[in-house]
Structure formats: structure tokens, C-alpha cells
Request: fold
Amino acid sequence: MLHDEARKLADVLAKRRIRVVLAESCTAGLASAALAQVPGISQWHCGAAVTYREATKQAWLDVSSSDLAQYTAVSDPVARQMAVGVLSKTPEAEFAASITGHLGPNAPKGFDGIALIAVASRTGVCVNVLDVHRIALRSSGRIDRQNEAAAAVLRHLRQAIQSPG
Reply:
């Protein structure tokens, strides 16, 4: 599933001549690694920021410390800021996707297997968040959840690029 999503996204990127960048937390770069396995992707994939810890999210992506304290790292505001931050720091990319989540074990109550994916786009000098998706992962093991979450990031990014308007 993950590698199929990577190929589908790569095809859309090549067809539309669009460059992307990722900001990954709970997937630890897995989505970017899957995309990088597609031959020729270096034309369209600018890279990824793996911001696993809160301090790294703040330093690399300008995620607000007050939002981290108020909402936690697994929240809509943080997912949005991650996507905006990585796209703002990657001028050659037109789209970005971010993911943050709790894959377990030891997730806070109500957050086990929850991930948030944000997609942002650039229009001229403006960076806008197009959508944030909260997903409940169906897999139960950590590695399976990482694969499922990484596939979801690539799928949501592809769908956003393909959406009219």
C-alpha cells in the first residue's frame, strides 16, 4: 500500500510538474523514504524534515511553543504549522504535507493510533493550509501503523494536488 501510494503520487507530480516537501513526526521520514524509492523522483521531491521531538518542531518549522503546550504535538494547530513551516522554508516546492500522531504504545488516553495530516500549498508568496485530516489508524502494531500513516500522507497530498481549484 505505501509503495503504491508513492508511485501514484510520483506519477501525479511528474504529470503536473509539481514539487513537494514533507514534514514528518510519527512516521519518522518513512513517507519520504517510500517516495525516494521511485526512480526520477528527485525532480519533484524536495526533501523532508523529520521533526520527531517538540523542540525540533519549534526550531526547524517555527511551530509555536504555546500551541504545543496548549494543544499538544498531536493537534490541528501543530499539523498546520508543520506544513506551513516546511513549505515556507522550501521555496522551490509548491505543496507540502505534514503528519503528527501517536502510534503507541503509551499514547495518552484517546490518542492511541490517531494521526493528523495537513496539506499546504503556495500561491505566489502566500502559503495556505488546504486541509487537515484526523485519521484513526486501523493497524495495531507500531510498524504497521507507521506504514499506514505514511501511505495516508502520500494519498492526502496526491488528492490535494489533483483537486480542482
About this structure: The radius of gyration is 15 Å. The chain has a mean pLDDT of 95.
